[in-house]
Structures are given as structure tokens and as C-alpha cells.
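Appendix B. Chain record.
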Amino acid sequence: MQNDVDESQGDEFQETLKRNIPLFQEAGVSLFIFDGVAWYDDPRNLTAHTIISTPVVWLPFEEQGQSVAGWLNDCIEGNLNDYGTDLINKKY
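C-alpha cells predicted for this chain:
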């Protein structure tokens, strides 16, 4: 498998996301940012994507005290909360 993305590009994405979080929040978008998915064994410091298709979606993240499924359910019920936005400043 060829890795087309490296950690420097991941750092660029993190900075772009950091700049855009206030815009998302202004628009009423609820955010769930996570870190440290145990099954994700990529040695690069990059984000695991498509978490919704894994069993991890049901497990609460320790730092957030919420699971992705719980967050989505809350959103459906009109309870919009942000989780993990403090992670945007984390240095890897």
C-alpha cells in the first residue's frame, strides 16, 4: 500500500481545521474531534477516518466522555455539543 499523505500534510490539515473551527461554530456545526483510536495501527501521526464504520463508534472516548454514536444521537435530538476541540492545539 502506498502512503500518499505524510505527517507534514497532516500538520497542514490540523492548522487548516484550527483556522476553520470558529467558522464551523458560527454556522452552527457541531464538532467531534478525537484522538487515539486503539485499532488504528498506522505508524504515522495521522487521523483515523471513517470511524463510523467501526465498532469504536460506540465506545466513549475517555477525554471527551462521549462516543461518536452518542454525539450523533444528541445532534439528531437537537442537542449540539462540541467535543475534542481542545485537541486542535495538541502537538504530535
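Further analysis of this model is presented in Appendix C.
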